[in-house]
Design a protein that fits this description.
Elements (H helix, E strand, L loop, with lengths): L2 E14 L2 E14 L3 E5 L6 H9 L6 E10 L2 E2 L5 H7 L4 E4 L3 H4 L6 H11 L5 H14 L5 H5 L8 H13 L5 E5 L7 H18 L2 E6 L2 H7 L2 E6 L2 E6 L1
Parallel strand pairs: 3-8, 3-9, 6-7, 7-8
Antiparallel strand pairs: 1-2, 1-4, 4-5, 9-10
Helix pairs in contact: 4-5, 5-7
Bound molecules: adenosine-5'-triphosphate and nickel (II) ion.
Length: 238
């Protein structure tokens, strides 16, 4: 099987007025195409930092101290910003930990989804609208037509997570990074979202890097798991 993602000895630190924090300390992982890989670790262990590093979205006050990130064999640290921008939204997409904050607050969620569809296809607005509704329906949102016209603040956290998931999946990414996609959801909804992820892997052959602190989630979806602790790293089969 071909390799989707490989991370070698990645170390990242943050600078703040209080000093520097080592958020990642020598992380290594290899993920095959079509594989679900779980990253677990307690709060503050560096999980979101890892996700942002892969997406090329680390904040200004961080530095990569060393290491390499390869996506489909390409060294992302040496690839230009245009290449990384091209990857985001096409090949690699991400569901952010705080979905409500990641959505544009001043645009109805339906238009946000339509925009992504239109940017990546030559569909008519009408067809994009239909596709957006279908995606929201796929994600298990009741009454997608009504949801389309709403702003993020008027939707629940779980609904925003589903909208984000629709946006992330509509492009059929080769790699989906999902940062705590089920946190804050009740158990039934969690199971449903995980089932959708599983279906994605099956149908689209996508790889999923699933970030969670929930060992129950790990047990139900992953073949491989990596544990981040205090920026350090342990990986092995589940
Ligand atoms: N923008 C930032 N500026 C300074 N420090 C940061 C920043 N982002 C994260 N950190 C620090 O880096 C460490 C790792 O944070 P990170 O958000 O990656 O953890 P996490 O594992 O995702 O936690 P959680 O499970 O709570 O989401 C923490 O000590 C955090 O305080
Ligand atoms: Ni996090």
């Amino acid at each position: 099987m071909a390799e989707a993602l490989r991370i070698e000895d990645l170390s990242v630190e943050f600078r703040s007025p209080a000093g520097t924090v080592r958020a990642l300390n020598g992380v290594n992982l290899t993920q095959e195409e079509g594989e679900t890989y779980c990253v677990v670790g307690e709060s503050g262990a560096g999980k979101s930092t890892l996700a942002l590093a892969i997406m090329g979205l680390l904040p200004q006050n961080s530095s990569v101290l060393g290491g390499r990130i390869y996506f489909q064999g390409v060294d992302l640290m040496r690839a230009g910003p245009d290449y990384i921008r091209g990857l985001r939204g096409h090949e690699v997409s991400m569901v952010f930990q705080d979905a409500q904050a990641a959505l544009n607050p001043v645009e109805p969620v339906g238009s946000q989804l339509e925009e992504v569809i239109l940017q990546h296809s030559d569909m008519s607005l009408r067809n994009a609208n239909r596709m957006a509704q279908e995606m929201l329906h796929e994600m298990g949102l009741p009454d997608p037509k009504r949801v389309m016209g709403q702003y993020p603040f008027s939707l629940s956290g779980g609904m925003c997570q589903r909208v984000m998931m629709a946006i992330a999946l509509v492009l059929r990414p080769k790699l989906l990074i999902a940062d705590e996609p089920t946190s804050g959801l009740d158990v039934t909804l969690q199971a449903e979202i995980l089932e959708r992820l599983r279906r994605l892997v099956r149908e689209q052959g996508s790889s999923v890097l699933l970030i969670t602190h929930d060992l129950g989630v790990v047990a139900s979806v992953a073949k491989k798991v990596g544990v981040i602790y205090g920026g350090g790293w342990w990986s092995g089969p589940t």
